[in-house]
Structures are given as structure tokens and as C-alpha cells.
């Protein structure tokens, strides 16, 4: 599900203005795809959008604060709120402090039927610490309201799943308490990653000491993180008490009767099992650098940007480590995952600026089920400049998989500043992110008809000549995908992704076999074309040979 963040809300506001672009060029692609026009005309103003977004956020923040003050005027937590249940009740009552105000009977129903809870949930679903850091007042107002509701006996039930007597995994995941717990875990992970990266050296490059104090001066997050932790604990205690009270008051045998009616889940499909297994493998660390006995360090895996990293030495922007810690937390929970195509990331155990990425090719494209490996390096001045990305799956620099993926590994994207585009499409330290880049590669480059990504070629889309050229182009990409993104990956997987690659190919083996047989069949039916038939015929022959080798390698790799 798409995560509703403040940035996405701003995007929605801009939808109408985007539709009124002054650019009169033809629409050759679906919205959000295509690279051929090369237009550099600005169609919307980023700064203006951010100002409008900030104004709306200030309005929402005030409304949340007013509502919190109405529910809990003082905002204070009773002194005995966290006291154990078995303490003497009379003693607890004497120290309970001021009682919560009695709210109108209708207030609970009004909140339940309003859009308040969905709105709060949308903010809590945001697992991007980077985005939270940009909207501190708004998130503190959300947390303030949640604390007020947790302290109100009349409203605390709204923080639980709607039908809490029915055991529903989906209901639990959508409840405020569950989302708040996930947010707490998210910021805890961020804090631990930031601490580890600032403290570990092991002969590897760290931020100079002169920047450490600047990182710790981030007052916004310094206030927000304990605020999230405190609110999560308070809401957990309040909801646990309510659940316990309900269980005590429930008629004997009612819960057991409900539990007895629970149906055993049906046998899970291959897709469900695949997603469950691959989800655990999406984000992890891997020791890519080790110390040398004679001093210094060395890479234990091939890494395209090793010379860049060594040349950078100790140079680094003061916000770099903080930004990387924020982004890795988002990556650990938000990487694209589907049966069709998924993204996997590995970062060095001690250095977050060194990463490797594996993307499985989307279905219904000439890249389907192939494993494409990328090396990623975050330069010293990141995020003021974008990360460097290089495609490693190039058939030893013999295959150009896409007009935007060169055989030397260059990745051509506006957001990476490697392709001229509109100003708002360029890298922006405030609005761009690594996750955005990964999604762009997955969805904008690995497309069904990559031939038309070549500048100027989009004008032939839909013509007989253009369609023939696209089929010829795809036939070459299909055989190259099987040879280099399947066979070579099975035979010589990157150590970082060995388990991912072998699991992917084994679990989807039947689909992959059917897919390649379909490619061969399609090519054989296209061989009669006078202009492109010979090239397609040669690609079909090459694909048949590689197909046999892939079958053998897949069987051997699983033994």
C-alpha cells in the first residue's frame, strides 16, 4: 500500500497545476515514464509547492493541538498511570491527581465516524525518518493528540482495532497502537544506526570529529524520538488495560467460543510463500570491507566505486551520516516487494555510504525475472549531490540493456543528474531520496518496450516500422537477460545476494521456464519478417542454447 506522507499530500495538491504544463510536446508514454523529449522547460515550482505545503501543515498542526487541549486540557499524565495493577487501589486513587474532564457522550461517536482516525493512521504509517524530520511540529501534534486520547477512558478504545474481539491480523496491522509501535521501532532503528556509524571505526573512514557536534544539534529529532517512545509506551499501557478489563467483564466461555470458530487458513499460494521468504531478505548488512593485516582496508566483494571512496578519504558533509541513517531505516521497511518485481539492498556493516542493490526484472518486460545488480556510492557532499549508481550486470561491458543503461554501467536518469530534464526532475536534497531513485529504475527503465526510451524513437511508436524495431530490440534483450541476468547470476552470484538469487530462481523456476519457452515461441513466429527476421532468428538460437545451460545450472545450484 502506498504510504501517505506529507510529501505525497503536496503532490496531490499539485496535480491540477501539473496538468496545465506549458510544454506542448506529444504524450508518448504513460504518465511518469519516458525519457525521449528531453524537455528542460519547468512545469511546476518546487519552492512554491513547499511553501503551500508548509502553510497547510501549520493549519493542521494547530487543529490537532486544539483538539488535544479540549480532550486533556492540562496535557499532564497522572502520576500513578504506569503503576502496577496490584497496588492498593485506595492509595492509587489518592495520588491520581486531577481527573480527566468528562466529554460529551456524543464526542466518541463523532470522532469514530470522522476522518480523524484515518488521518492519524496515515501519518503513523510513515516509516521515513527523513520525512518526519522535515515535519517535526506536525508529528509532535499528532503524538500529543494520541496521548490525550489514551488518557481519556471514553476515547482510548478508538486506538484499538474496531472489532478487537475478532482476531484479525489485518485489523491489528491497521490499528493505531500497531502503527505507533512500528513507528517507535523505526526511530529506535534510526538512533541505533546513527550511533553505530558514528562510533565504529575499524580502520574505515568516519566523519571528522568536528562534525559530530553538528549532528547532535538536530533539536527536532532529538525531541521527536523520545516523544514517539513515550507516546507508544503510554498508549500501549492504556490499551492493554482496556483489553484486560474487557476480558474480565466478558461472559465466561465467550472468547473460547470465538476462538473455536476461527477457520484454519487455507494452504498458501506460491506467490504468498515467495513474498514471505523474500521479505526477510530484502534489506541487510554485509561486510564488504575488511582490515588488512599490514594496515588499511580492502574490499572483499567487487565494488565499482572503490577508487572514489578511497579518494574521498575523510571528507564528508556534516549531514551525510544523519541523512544516510534516515534513508536506511526507510529502506529497511519500504523497498518494493511483489511477485512480479522486487528490490533488495545490502549496505556495508560499518559504512552506510557503500551499498549494493539487486532488482528483479518486472513481469511482461524483456527483463522479467532477471537479477540486475547495481553498485551505489554516496559522495562526501551527499545529499547536496545525488548518489552514484553503476549497473554491474553488463555482460562484461558487452550488453547495453536499455537506452538508459549503458554497457559501461552508466545509469541515465534525470534524478541522478545524468540526463538533462526539467528542473523539478533533477536531484533535490530536500525532496529526492534513494528510494525514489530505486523505484525510478524499476518502473521507468525496466519497461515492456525499452526501444522507445531512446530519444527521438518515441515518435515511431505505433507505426509498423517502430513496432518491428521494438520487437527486434526486445529479442536481443530477452536473450541477454537469460544469459547475463539469469545464467551468470546463478553461476556466479554476488556474495551479498547469493541467498536472494538462488531462492528467487528456485521458487519461481516453473514460471521462468514457461516464460523463456514463451519468448522462444514468440521469436520463432517473428522470424519471417524481411527486415528484422534474421536478427530475431539469431537471438532465438542464442536463447535456446542459454536456456539449456540455465536449466542445468538451476538444478546444480539447488543440490
From TrEMBL:
CDD domains: UBCc_BIRC6. Residues 78-102 are annotated as: Disordered. GO terms for molecular function: cysteine-type endopeptidase inhibitor activity; transferase activity. SUPFAM superfamilies: UBC-like. Residues 83-96 have a biased composition (Acidic residues). InterPro entries: UBC (IPR000608), UBQ-conjugating_enzyme/RWD (IPR016135). Residues 319-486 form the UBC core domain. One of its GO terms (cellular component) is nucleus. It comes from the Eukaryota. Keywords: Transferase, Ubl conjugation pathway. The keyword Transferase applies. GO terms for biological process: negative regulation of apoptotic process. This is UBC core domain-containing protein. It comes from Cryptotermes secundus.
Amino acid at each position: 500500500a502506498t504510504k501517505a506522507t506529507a510529501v505525497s499530500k503536496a503532490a496531490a495538491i499539485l496535480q491540477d497545476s501539473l496538468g496545465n504544463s506549458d510544454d506542448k510536446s506529444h504524450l508518448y508514454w504513460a504518465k511518469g515514464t519516458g525519457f525521449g523529449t528531453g524537455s528542460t522547460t519547468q512545469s511546476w515550482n518546487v519552492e512554491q509547492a513547499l511553501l503551500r505545503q508548509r502553510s497547510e501543515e501549520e493549519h493542521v498542526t494547530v487543529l490537532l493541538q486544539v483538539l488535544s487541549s479540549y480532550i486533556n486540557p492540562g496535557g499532564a499524565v497522572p502520576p500513578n498511570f504506569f503503576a502496577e495493577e496490584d497496588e492498593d487501589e485506595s492509595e492509587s486513587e489518592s495520588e491520581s491527581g486531577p481527573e480527566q474532564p468528562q466529554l460529551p457522550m456524543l464526542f466518541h461517536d463523532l470522532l469514530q465516524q470522522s476522518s480523524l482516525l484515518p488521518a492519524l493512521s496515515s501519518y503513523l504509517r510513515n516509516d521515513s525518518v527523513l520525512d518526519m524530520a522535515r515535519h517535526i511540529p506536525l508529528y509532535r501534534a499528532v503524538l500529543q493528540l494520541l496521548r490525550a486520547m489514551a488518557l481519556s477512558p471514553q476515547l482510548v478504545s478508538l486506538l484499538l482495532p474496531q472489532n478487537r474481539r475478532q482476531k484479525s491480523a489485518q485489523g491489528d496491522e491497521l490499528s493505531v497502537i500497531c502503527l505507533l509501535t512500528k513507528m517507535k521501532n523505526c526511530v529506535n532503528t534510526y538512533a541505533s544506526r546513527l550511533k553505530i556509524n558514528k562510533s565504529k571505526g575499524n580502520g574505515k573512514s568516519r566523519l571528522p570529529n568536528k562534525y559530530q557536534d553538528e549532528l547532535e544539534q538536530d533539536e527536532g529529532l532529538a525531541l521527536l524520538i523520545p516523544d514517539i517512545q513515550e507516546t507508544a509506551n503510554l498508549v500501549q499501557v492504556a490499551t492493554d488495560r482496556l483489553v484486560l478489563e474487557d476480558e474480565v467483564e466478558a461472559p465466561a466461555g465467550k472468547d473460547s467460543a470465538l476462538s473455536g470458530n476461527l477457520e484454519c487458513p487455507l494452504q498458501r499460494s506460491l506467490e504468498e510463500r515467495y513474498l514471505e521468504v523474500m521479505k526477510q531478505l530484502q534489506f541487510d548488512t554485509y561486510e564488504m570491507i575488511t582490515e588488512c593485516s599490514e594496515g588499511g582496508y580492502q574490499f572483499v566483494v567487487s565494488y565499482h566505486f572503490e577508487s572514489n571512496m578511497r579518494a574521498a578519504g575523510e571528507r564528508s558533509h556534516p549531514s551525510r551520516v544523519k541523512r544516510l541513517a534516515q534513508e536506511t531505516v526507510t529502506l529497511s521497511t519500504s523497498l518494493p516487494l511483489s511477485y512480479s518485481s522486487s528490490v533488495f539492498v545490502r549496505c556495508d556493516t560499518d559504512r552506510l555510504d557503500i551499498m549494493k542493490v539487486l532488482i528483479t526484472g518486472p513481469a511482461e518486460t524483456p527483463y522479467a525475472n532477471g537479477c540486475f545488480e547495481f553498485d551505489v556510492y554516496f559522495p562526501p557532499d551527499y545529499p547536496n549531490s545525488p548518489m552514484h549508481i553503476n549497473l554491474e550486470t553488463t555482460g562484461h561491458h558487452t550488453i547495453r540493456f536499455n537506452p538508459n543503461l549503458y554497457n559501461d554501467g552508466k545509469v541515465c536518469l534525470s534524478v541522478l543528474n545524468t540526463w538533462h530534464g526539467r528542473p523539478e526532475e533533477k536531484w533535490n536534497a530536500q525532496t529526492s531520496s534513494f528510494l525514489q531513485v530505486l523505484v525510478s529504475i524499476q518502473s521507468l527503465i525496466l519497461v515492456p518496450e525499452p526501444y522507445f526510451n531512446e530519444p527521438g524513437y518515441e515518435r515511431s511508436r505505433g507505426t509498423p516500422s517502430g513496432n518491428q524495431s521494438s520487437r527486434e530490440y526486445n529479442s536481443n534483450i530477452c536473450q541477454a537477460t537469460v544469459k547475463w541476468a539469469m545464467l551468470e547470476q546463478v553461476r556466479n552470484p554476488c556474495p551479498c545476494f547469493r541467498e536472494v538469487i538462488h531462492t528467487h530462481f528456485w521458487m519461481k523456476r516453473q514460471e521462468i521456464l514457461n516464460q523463456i519457452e514463451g519468448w522462444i515461441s514468440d521469436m520463432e513466429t517473428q522470424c519471417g519478417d524481411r527486415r528484422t527476421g534474421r536478427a530475431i532468428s539469431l537471438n532465438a538460437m542464442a536463447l535456446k542454447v542459454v536456456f539449456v545451460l540455465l536449466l542445468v545450472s538451476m538444478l546444480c545450484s539447488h543440490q
